[in-house]
Design brief:
mainly alpha, PPR_At4g14850-like_plant, 74% helix, disordered N terminus
């Protein structure tokens, strides 16, 4: 444990290097130094967990990890809620090495086979832009749910790994046990559009119609319209758009078709749709 604490301290020194783009104020750094060297009574893990989860900027996250280090050094061991909160605190710092250290502690001190914790690890790696590491906890999970798969798919797509995101979606469909949710479909449709793969978009369109998602969720139709326009398939894009009732069309519905037409240099048509939009919105 002493070795692990030393590694944490070294990593915190690295991430607080002035050359890194962290929002640090002298007051917070003074507070962090005072805490790490003081003999103040430590809070319990319940209070600490709440603080870890509330960190929404890098300087607060730095203090959170100093709290964690000090509590470990006093032989106070974390509970099952500590690690998801710590992983959340990694986000503002955006350092994959820090997530990796928390991952190491989870392996040694955390609960076995915790689905929520596994999902939190995937998300933490994705938020830090470490897609190569995000796959590790995903592959190690004995049980995966729709959140596990959707988190990885959306993360890969957000990081520009469109083909990998589509492949994870295919794995989910082949699994047979996990039904994709709207977020998973939206992410994989975005990937199809960015890949320019009209064939993939058509396959997903057929799947969505068969599953009844087209009628249930307008956001799915918006994503489908966007995917077709990015693939250059104006006919399919306008068909999906026209199948949406005017009363159900929202800002994203109109934006998807208009931006697609602009991208394809269909000036006359995009002006037509703009007029239609302005008439409906009044």
């Amino acid at each position: 444990m002493k070795y692990e604490l030393m590694r944490f301290r070294s990593l915190l020194l690295l991430i607080t290097n002035p050359r890194r783009n962290l929002q640090r104020s002298p007051l917070v750094l003074v507070r962090a130094i005072e805490f790490s060297t003081s003999g103040a009574k430590l809070p319990n893990w319940v209070s600490a967990n709440k603080f870890f989860a509330s960190c929404d900027h890098s300087e607060a996250a730095l203090v959170a990890f100093l709290y964690y280090m000090k509590m470990l050094s006093s032989n106070t061991f974390p509970d099952k809620y500590t690690f998801p909160a710590l992983l959340q605190a990694c986000g503002p710092i955006s350092d994959p090495g820090l997530v990796k250290q928390v991952h190491s502690h989870i392996t040694k001190l955390g609960p076995d086979e915790d689905l929520f914790l596994g999902n939190s690890m995937i998300n933490a790696y994705v938020v830090c832009g470490a897609k190569c590491f995000a796959r590790e906890p995903f592959d190690q999970m004995a049980e995966k749910d729709v959140v596990s798969r959707t988190t990885l798919i959306s993360g890969l797509v957000a990081l520009g790994c469109y083909g990998e995101g589509v492949n994870v979606f295919k794995e989910m469909m082949m699994d047979g046990w996990t039904r994709p949710n709207a977020a998973a479909f939206a992410s994989v449709l975005s990937a199809c559009g960015d890949l320019g793969s009209c064939d993939h978009a058509k396959c997903l369109h057929a799947l969505l119609e068969k599953a009844g998602w087209i009628e249930l969720d307008v956001s799915i139709r918006n994503s489908l319209t966007d995917a077709y326009t990015k693939c250059g398939s104006l006919e399919n894009a306008t068909k999906v758009f026209n199948d949406v009732e005017d009363s159900e069309k929202d800002l994203y519905t109109w934006t998807a078709i208009i931006s697609g037409l602009v991208m394809m240099d269909r000036e006359g048509m995009h002006i037509y749709f703009l007029l239609g939009w302005s008439m409906i919105l009044g």
